[in-house]
Amino acid sequence: MKNRLENFIRDNKKEFDELEPPVALWDKIEKQMDEKQILQPKKERVVRLSFLLKMAASIILVLSAGLWFYQYQAKQAMDLSNINPQLAQQQVHYASVIEIKRNELKRIEKEEPKLYQEFSSEIRKMDESYQKLKNDLPNSPNQEETVKAMIRNLQIQTQVLNQQLDIIQQINKAKKEQKNETQTI
C-alpha cells in the first residue's frame, strides 16, 4: 500500500506542484485571523465595561441613599438637641432599644403569626402616636414638653416590648416543658 502511494505521488508530482495555493492566500488568512483576535477582546472589554458601569451606578445609588438617610437622622437628632441635648440623647437611646426589641419580636412571626400580629399591632399604634408628636414638634408652643412626651411614648413602647418578649419566653418555656413531659411518657 505504501509503495502504491509513493508511486502515485512520484508519477503525479508535476500536477501537485501546479496546484500550489497563491502566495497572497496565506497573508490574507493571517490578516483575517489577526482581525478576529483584535475584535474578540474588544467585545469582552465592552461587556466588562458595561458591567463595571452598572456596578458603579449601583454603588453610587446605595451610597447616596445611605448618605441621605444619615443626614436625615442627623438633622432629626440635631433638631431635638437644639431643644434639649439630654432629651435628644434619651430619644436616640430609646429608639435604638426599640429597634433591637422589635427585631427580637420578629423572630416569632413564623411560629406564632397571630400573636406576632397582635403584638406588632399594639406597637404600631404607639409608633403612630410617636410620629404624630414628632410631626407636631416644629409647630408646638412648648417643644420641650413635646419632646418629653415623645420620650415617654418610647419608654412605654420599650416596656410593652419587654412584656411581649417575656410572654414569648413563657410560651416557649411551657412548650419545652410540655415536649419534655411527652417524651418521658
Summarize the structure.
The longest helix is centred in the N-terminal third of the chain and has 61 residues, at 23-83. Helices cover 89% and strands 0% of the residues.
Task: Describe the protein in words.
This protein has 185 residues and is mainly α. The protein folds into 2 domains: 23-83; 84-185, no CATH class. The protein has helices at residues 2-11, 13-18, 23-83, 85-106, 113-136, 143-184. Helix 3 crosses helix 4 and helix 5 packs antiparallel against helix 6 (143-184). The N and C termini lie far apart (91 Å).
Topology:
Elements: H1 2-11, H2 13-18, H3 23-83, H4 85-106, H5 113-136, H6 143-184
Helix pairs in contact: 3-4, 4-6, 5-6
Properties at a glance:
185 residues; single chain; mainly alpha
Using DSSP, what is the number of strands?
0
Helix content: over 70%
Q: What is the CA–CA distance across the termini?
A: 91 Å
What class would the helix/strand composition place it in? mainly alpha
**Strand-residue proportion:** under 5%
Overall mean confidence score, pLDDT: 79
Query: Helix and strand succession?
Result: HHHHHH
